[in-house]
Amino acid sequence: MTENGKRPIGGDRRVLDAGALRALSHPLRVRIFDILAQEGPQTASTLAEILGESSGATSYHLRALARHELIREVEGERSGRERWWERPPGGIVYDSKAVQGSPAGEAALQVAVAEVHRRRHEELMEFFSGRIDREPGEWVDASTSMTSGISMTAEQTTDLIRRIEAVIDEAADAYRGQKGEGVRRVSVRADVFPLKSMTSKKETAS
User: Fold this and answer.
1) Is the pTM of this model over 0.70?
2) With contact defined as beta carbons under 8 Å apart, do 121 and 27 qualify?
3) Per-residue pLDDT tens for 151-169?
4) DSSP secondary-structure letter at 148?
5) Which of 48, 103, 168, 199 to pair with 185, CA 20 to 30 A apart?
6) Cα–Cα distance between 202 and 183 in angstroms, integer?
């Protein structure tokens, strides 16, 4: 799966190794990783205030993420003794092939992907089950959650994924770093996977 998918992908995307996956398998680190993407550079203290944690805890988790180059220090930026941290540009890829044959790597992949999906589901439910009622009409109109079942081959599905990614990448490149009135961070999701057949057992039995 990826902040992309289980396959080699071009562009500015990094395939995570077992060490990086282990670093991202902690719930608080996933939150920190997301905050740096959504809110921009932060210090251990600003993250502690956002998360309701101690600065010692956030500092520890920042170092763990930095050790695997998932985040980096902002050059030339310091608040006294505190360092500012940012997420490097580009996406990350959770690729099962990168850890295939390594029990520790495969376990880290499962935990990291489960935690990321749990966090994404929380965000989705928080918006559509309540917050959407408090959003301005223009943002309600600019929000959607859709699912479609399509009968396709693996090759056709892969082609669809590449076309979806191209559209998302185009928007990401066009609006990267955009600031100003009316600009908000928007979550764009595309989950594409084969469904489990609900008729195969009946067909086998007959």
Assistant:
1) yes
2) no
3) 999 999 999 999 998 999 8
4) -
5) 48
6) 52
